[in-house]
Predict the structure.
Amino acid sequence: MSIKLRSGTTHRDIPLQPQLLYRFLRHLRRPARDSSALLIIVFATMLSVSLRAGPYGLYGLPVTLLLVSWFFKYAFVLFDHVVHGFDEPPTLDIRMVNPFDEQRPLVQLAIIAGISAGVRAVAISISPIAGSVLTAVALLLLPASVAMLGLEGNPLKAVYPAALWRMIAGLGLWYVALLGLIAAVALLLYLLSDLDAWLVWRLGIAMFAVLAVFSVLGGTLYERRHELGLETWHSPEQMHEKAQRDETRLRTAAVTDAYGLARAGMNDKAWEQLQNWLISRGKHVEDLRWLTERLRTWPDPRYVSRLTEDYVDRLMALKRHGEALDAVVERLAVDPKFRPKSSTATFRLAELAGRGGGAHAVSRMLLSDFAQRFPTDPHVEAARRLTSELAD
């Protein structure tokens, strides 16, 4: 998965306003939920026992190393889970106990060890000040390195300055917030080292802090997925696209069934099925528009003409007169005998076309048989006057 800022995108940092702060805190508290909380409790208890087994915990050293390995493997799996858009923390699975599967924690440890050795060499051979500056730079780049390794699994990209800078630029202020969290976690771990409390409590708090960093790191990448060009497995956009696909499938199935009935000559049942589908959806105007467009391809024009009447009535009720006139004009171009259903809609659209829209031909067409269709309607005289105006 390549990480790059999309070309042509102007990056603007958004302040951590209350909504963004809530999302940050949601990622921060994720390790306190469900399977992550259970893992912390179990691992902290087991580690407290293994660290006290024999002098300096030597008897329990194999178990300690194994538990630490599993823990950091879980941390990277949690990172993957969050980056892909899943809110619930993952459960411990076979990948985390397989020594040959997840190697990112070991690779990251090797990267940190290599950078530490290089910084120490600079401090000795050049100057302590240069070593201190490089140490500060390395610490600032460390979260980006972990993120790059977590995404790509490539140790070269995890130390490549250009790739790390693109990552930091893409995260923007989220990266600053992440650095603040890491500084707070480091201070917490330092205070815990001097705290006179049960070892299991100190280990549990430390584990939660580490998982919180990985969760926030993954959540930060997820929140900035558009700026980084990341592909996720679960996101509001994907949920919306899936809902749209499901909606299109259901719509198409309803129309296809009705079309089969129409082709079999069962017109009443076909129309009833279309009406039932519209009623089930509250006769929403967008559904009427979509269905009208689909019925244009049917060989029998009566369906689309009748449905256009309903569509125009709905638009008029919503006072979307311009859209209603567009629908009428479009239908008249195919079927000159088409008319809106009601006298009020017919006269209002004719008036709009003649006096406001400049479509005199459409207005005259709508009014040509107005008196015959609605002989007792109070608009008859006004329709005659408008027809005379348009004829002059």
User: Anything to note?
Assistant: The chain has a mean pLDDT of 81. Residues 236-263 form the longest helix (28 residues). DSSP finds 18 helices and no strands in the chain.
